[in-house]
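How a chain folds remains the central question behind the approach discussed here. This step matters because it turns folding into a mapping between discrete strings. The sequence in question and its structure tokens are set out directly beneath this paragraph.
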Amino acid sequence: MSTELTAGLWIVAAYLIGAIPFGFIIGKMRGVDVRTVGSKNIGATNVFRTVGKKWGVLALVLDIMKGLIPTLACKIYQGDSITWLPLAVGIMTATGHMLTPYMKFKGGKGVATGFGMMIALIPCHCALAFAIFALVFAASNYISLGSCTAAAFLGVSVWVPAGSFKGYGDLPQAILITLVAAFVIYKHRANIKRLIAGNENKIHLFKKPEAK
């Protein structure tokens, strides 16, 4: 099989896998169309808020896995022969989530799937990004703020020279990961406006919000 055909098959498969709308499917299984409630987004955060905590966590894990597994598999099986392909596969899983053909090219914000892709490519950076997300979320109860902060960190940290906590020093990868991080933040533009206005919805992971 030619290199071009191999790469094309990996990329198409990654896009179709990334496009699986797990949040929508989980909501439908629980009798909720997440496109019509809450933020009307099919991502894990809206599932968490409108369907239930455990279902939101399940959607989160599945969305991460659909970015992680294809990218990691490609890195293992093709990374030596087609060095750019794992990154392309990861990008396509995130693109599939955000622009899913199964739902008229409307999808989620790509945070979880993009994070799964980056775990496969830059695990050390992702460990730090997750710690930053967890701290910001715990302090604020805003998932959107934690997500944007973690995305911003990843977009900047990939430019750290190789050798600094295992930075890659790979220019094409750094450029594309920064673009993905910027696009994730762009997809949160409505959340950012609500954060600035002070009316963004909070998520209380371990306790119910106090009655007003």
In short: Residues 15 and 174 are 21 Å apart (CA to CA). The chain has one domain: 3-197. The chain has a mean pLDDT of 88. DSSP finds ten helices and no strands in the chain.
